[in-house]
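This section describes the prediction task in plain terms. A model, or a person checking by hand, is given the sequence of a single protein chain and must write out its three-dimensional structure as a string of tokens. No templates, partner chains or ligands are provided. The sample shown here is typical of the held-out split.
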Amino acid sequence: MTERSLVLDEEGYLLNLQNWTPELANQLAQEVDIELTDAHWEIIHLLREFYQEFEVSPAMRPLVKAVSKKLGAEKGRSIYLMTLFPGSPPKLAAKIAGLPKPANCL
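The expected answer:
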């Protein structure tokens, strides 16, 4: 994919969700000093599935609930998500997953 075809909004979110690739995820993660591990990919894939089903990027509470339901209570905790995606896990994880910014995240 060329840089020209990759269009991000002013906050760095991918405008055309079809342009997302795992390589792009790695690139977006590197820009915020995150090295994607298997634990990150679990959340990224879960987020993309969530978006496919509900057509919305989840805010923290629904994200925690979805992670808990799919990956277990140990991972379904905001503190765990913050270790992977510091600051605002829903915003940062959605950005890396090539999804829109969660609606109720500032």
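For orientation: The chain is about 50% helix and 0% strand.
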